[in-house]
Amino acid sequence: MQSTKSIQGTREILKNHKGKTIAMVPTMGYLHEGHGALIKAAKEKADFVVVSIFVNPLQFGPNEDFDSYPRDIDHDLAFCQKYGVDLVFHPDIEEMYPKDMEFTIRIKSMASILDGRKRPGHFEGVVTVIAKLFNIVQPDYAFFGEKDRQQLMIIKALVTDFNLPVEVFGVPTKREESGLAKSSRNVNLTETERAEAASIYQALNMASEHIVNGEDSPSKIASEIKIYIEQNTSAHIDDLAIYSADGLKEIDKIQEDVIIFIAVKFSKTRLIDNLYVKI
């Protein structure tokens, strides 16, 4: 396995592997089994796998957890070695953003809901760094977790709208035995909060079952989830919505496949999850 903090170094290494198919797994580090699932999927698809590790300041708001976001590059490099990654690109901020950028990418409706509404500028920061990473690595394939499904759909739209020559794949959310979605931010949960956080997935599954059994009111489903979370955790719901699976459109009645999105705030961290419900 090779690793570099340099954009030019990354390009030089990749020059030596011309003719191979390249898969990329962009991450913010503090890698866990969820990232491992992405790497495994990438290895099955391509000859050469690149993992990027970069905590991107552009996607954090002024009062968010950029400074406290967990980082451990030694762990991450060992993790990538274990999973058979070929190249790790782990630049610092000055390498990725040597000066203030003149250009940004604006997103229309897909960034006006959910995390885009709650975290203004977040997805613009995401697509900016992804566009840069795709340009640096020029992968044939890229892999993202379905836990961040809104992000996944926005990145797919970026690739489509700008005709980028990369195929984007979503990989099912890796979960702990309790059902809690694997996340780098889980390290900030107390032992009690981690146990309580299992209720997030339980609430989503309960809601899915009710929809499949005929409940077609998004407001009723949302109310059931809210009550379940309030009764079983010390957290509060930061966001909760049900959108059409096709294009994330608002709906008054559930008549097609939907995605239930939820964000829950514990004392020191905000967790997101979602569930695709097939009608």
Automatic annotation (TrEMBL):
Enzyme class, broadest EC rank: ligase
Binding site for ATP: 28-35, 145-148, 182-185
Annotated positions binding beta-alanine: Q59
Record field: catalytic activity: (R)-pantoate + beta-alanine + ATP = (R)-pantothenate + AMP + diphosphate + H(+)
EC number: 6.3.2.1
Subcellular location: Cytoplasm
Functional description taken from the UniProt entry: Catalyzes the condensation of pantoate with beta-alanine in an ATP-dependent reaction via a pantoyl-adenylate intermediate.
Classification via PANTHER family: CYTIDYLATE KINASE/PANTOATE-BETA-ALANINE LIGASE, PANTOATE--BETA-ALANINE LIGASE
HAMAP family, A to Z: PanC
Miscellaneous comment text of the record: The reaction proceeds by a bi uni uni bi ping pong mechanism.
Identification of the protein by name: Pantothenate synthetase
Biological source species: Jeotgalicoccus meleagridis
Gene (UniProt): panC
